[in-house]
Design brief:
By secondary structure, the protein is of the alpha/beta class. The chain has two domains: 4-103 and 218-229, Rossmann fold (3-Layer(aba) Sandwich); 105-215, Rossmann fold, CATH 3.40.50. Helix content is 55%, strand content 13%. The longest helix has 19 residues, at 12-30. The mean pLDDT is 97. Belongs to the aspartate/glutamate racemases family.
Length: 230
């Protein structure tokens, strides 16, 4: 079994779910008392949040590269970034390390491609929805058409994520708002929904959405486990 290196803390609310998924998946695959070999290097999210809001992505890249190198030196055989948004600086990780890096958009694109769905809604932070570091991979490598919310709904989602979800606050009324945004995108032709923020699956369950949902946390964790056990 290979050792999975996780860069976590963005936020720790979802990082703990990564850890849970990875160990459950290994136990399911190998049985008995098996669990995953893993290393976690976790950031102070307040620092990352401040740099994000000031668009200081170079500094975030430096921080991610440092954590990735720490994991590599400690013995990780691969590295994953336990967040969607900060994949914006994934090049900083791949440039700084020699071990494989598993990009969350590639894992998600592969999962969607297996279903035959072609038109999918993307929910996440404004950075994830507006910038092309994520959607470009989905479009160019997997042939997907991506729908995102209108500007007003983007702002609402962004606020829910940063003011509530990353702080461990999960309000029923916020869930209803998110479900309402999803319904609008379904009316525009979305055949499925990417929960492109690792905290969103903690708020919205699969059975609460009419179309298939793609839990990026679980998809990414499964890809890491598949690699570790290959």
């Amino acid at each position: 079994m290979k050792t999975i290196g996780l860069i976590g803390g963005m936020s720790w609310e979802s990082s703990k779910v990564y850890y849970q998924h990875i160990n459950e998946m290994v136990r399911e695959k190998l049985g008995g008392s098996h669990s995953a070999k893993s290393l976690l290097s976790s950031v102070d999210f307040d620092e990352i949040e401040r740099y994000s809001f000031s668009s200081n992505w170079d500094q975030i890249g430096n921080i991610m590269a440092l954590h990735a190198k720490t994991l590599e030196k400690a013995g990780s055989d691969l590295v994953i970034l336990c967040t969607n948004t900060i994949h914006l600086v994934s090049d900083a990780i791949t440039d700084a390390t020699n071990v494989p890096f598993l990009h969350i958009a590639n894992a998600t694109g592969e999962a969607i491609a297996k279903t035959g769905i072609k038109k999918v809604a993307l929910l996440g932070t404004k950075f994830t929805m507006e910038k092309d570091f994520y959607t470009k991979i989905l479009k160019e490598e997997y042939g997907l058409e991506i729908l995102v919310p209108n500007n007003e709904d983007m702002d609402i989602l962004h606020s829910i994520i940063y003011d509530e979800l990353v702080k461990g606050i999960f309000k029923p009324e916020s869930k209803e708002v998110c479900l309402g945004i999803i319904k609008k995108l379904e009316a525009e032709g979305a055949e499925g929904v990417i929960l492109g923020c690792t905290e969103l699956p903690l708020l919205i369950a699969d059975n609460e959405v009419a179309t298939p949902t793609f839990d990026t946390t679980k998809i990414h964790a499964q890809k890491a486990v598949d690699f570790a056990l290959s």
